Amino acid sequence: MRIKNVISKRDVKLIKNTFKYLKKFKIHFLSIIFSMIIMILLGIIQPLIAGKIIEKVSLQQFNDIYYFLILALFIQIIESFITSLKSYLEITLNNKIILDVKNDMYNSILNLSMKVFDKVGIGEFISRLQGDVNILANIITNEFINTLISIIRVLILSIIILKINLKLSIIILIQFPINYILMLRFGKELREKNKSLSKIQDIYFNFIQQSLLGIKYIKTNNIKYKNFKKFNNISLILNQDKNKISKFHNFAYFIIKIINISNNFILNIFGLYLIIRGNLTIQYFVAFTSYSKQFSEDLNNILQLNATIQKSLVSLERIFDLINNNENWECEKFGPKNKKIKKANIIFQNVYFSYDNKTYILNDFNCKIKSKSLNVIVGKNGSGKTTIINLLLKLYNISSGNILINNIKLNELNEKSIRNLISVVHQQIYIFNLTIRENFKLINKNINDDEIIELCNYVKLNDYIQNLKEGYDTVIKENCNNLSGGQRQRLALALCLARNTPIIILDEITSSLDDESKIIIKKIVKKLSLDKTIIMITHDKDLINISNNIITMN
Ligand SMILES: Nc1ncnc2c1ncn2[C@@H]1O[C@H](COP(=O)(O)OP(=O)(O)O)[C@@H](O)[C@H]1O
Ligand SMILES: [Mg+2]
């Protein structure tokens, strides 16, 4: 009954979620259980044979002793084979479960709302994907299977030891109520300790990720040493926490071991007494001590289950909160309508929006954007220009009002319709760490080499790329480090055009361009606007002059 206080309804749900991953691998799992049962049986026969051999030696009956020795050898060979098989099965099951859980987690991460990414550091995702998933798999393939086996073995062994000698069995059983109470206390403590460990682990991964992304900043601002010191500090805290848990774990184990040793001592004394009085044979005493040792180990395993679960629940929470989109892990939501939109008229109608539900960036914002036109959004830094784009892309949801595309509410369109409607060159450009050609194929799998060259020619990048040693097979380095700011923006524009969507959004793409490139862009957008809806955020006077519609943010 006491266990109810420690494991809540929510915890039970987490454990149920965990075992869902086992369903797919039923046969695999049953094979492990089957090999375990054979091991149990072999384990039960062996002490009897050992006892028999010792008894034969003590009675000096050497004739049939060889028979028992060969039998023991044979059983041990089978046992070794099954042990290896079982361990192989466990490892493969473990890997399969890890694969499945990681797939589910990664898929959930991809579908999280942008609001989550604003709050949660990337390191925290990595920490969950790496650390916590291993713990989940371990619960199933290690803890759960071992506990199940322990339960089966305890049931069999309890009958056997009771049959051999009732009084000795009672001595064995005395230790367990004490162990049980201890384990409950240890379990609660372990859960708390693991919770704080996970938090520090998140900080650790976040710190590394942030530092490596900002490596240029660290070098040029001469903060290498400070950065290293901070890393060292976090590592030390992490280490201390790990050591604390290990210390506590070992302390708990030590206490239980001491209880067990004392118990064995009493058992041996009493066993000897029974043998001297002729109430017990040597064979059965040898078998009994061996059984009772296994019995104690198994029963302790079962009692430890609570501690193990408590310890692992922290990880299970961290996994399933994410997979099931529980509080703080909201996922993106789209409407049901699938529309293939060719010409798009956009209306922002009384739109209110806030990133944090406190300060409103847009207060009753209204504007109309006609299809096949060149629109510019102008306004001071921080006035909400990029925010409008974020809302149109449905990266964030408006607080109230409406965004209408051809009089259909944006909220009613499904993900595919929106993504096929709009392409964008973001203010902060991101291009994948792949070759130039692969980057084009990634966003439009049907594009051929001629089309890629045509697009790059269009943005006046083809000559540059053709002159590279690897041409279109040049790998874009991380953070686009092998491209200049202007080249980056022009390649991003070519990639954006490769998607051929009715709406094209360009967020301050002329900011790093020289005059010559600006003229090129001007020509491109002018031409594009004959066929598509172009929305540009820009401070460039020339572009503003040629536009059909100016939206001013204040
Ligand atoms: N992800 C975000 N979370 C919270 N606040 C944000 C976020 N993005 C932008 N903001 C805030 O919203 C305001 C408008 O930003 P933005 O639309 O990017 O301005 P700009 O007009 O320069 O493009 C700014 O005050 C900015 O700090
Ligand atoms: Mg902006």
Q: How many structural domains?
A: 2
What is the name of the CATH architecture of the largest domain? Answer: Up-down Bundle
Profile the largest sheet. Answer: 5 strands, parallel
CATH class identity of the largest domain: Mainly Alpha
Uncertain runs: none
Q: Structural class, from secondary structure content?
A: alpha/beta
Ligand types: adenosine-5'-diphosphate, magnesium ion
| CATH level-3 fold name of the largest domain | ABC transporter transmembrane region fold
The overall average pLDDT, rounded, is 91
CATH superfamily of the largest domain: ABC transporter type 1, transmembrane domain
Q: Looking across the biggest beta sheet, what order are the strands in? A: 6-7-8-3-9
Tally the helices: 18
**How far apart are the first and last residues' alpha carbons, in Å?**
63 Å
Number of strands: 9
Protein name: ABC transporter ATP-binding protein
Organism: Clostridium senegalense
GO molecular function: ABC-type oligopeptide transporter activity; ATP binding; ATP hydrolysis activity
Main location: membrane
Would you write up a description of this structure?
The protein is of the alpha/beta class and about 550 residues long. The chain has 2 domains: about 5-325, Up-down Bundle (ABC transporter transmembrane region fold); about 375-390 and about 415-550, 3-Layer(aba) Sandwich (Rossmann fold). The protein is built from 18 helices and 9 strands. The chain has helices at about 5, 10-25, 25-60, 65-110, 115-120, 120-165, 165-215, 215-220, 225-275, 280-325, 385-390, 415-420, 435-445, 450-460, 460-465, 485-500, 515-530, 540-545; strands spanning about 345-355, 360-370, 375-380, 400-405, 410, 420-425, 505, 535, 550. The chain has a 5-stranded parallel sheet, sandwiched between helices. Strands 2-1-4-5 form a 4-stranded antiparallel sheet, covered by helices on one side. Helix 17 links the parallel strand 7 (about 505) and strand 8. The longest helix has about 55 residues, at about 225-275. It starts with a helix and ends with a strand. Adenosine-5'-diphosphate binds near residues 118, 355, 361, 383 and 385.
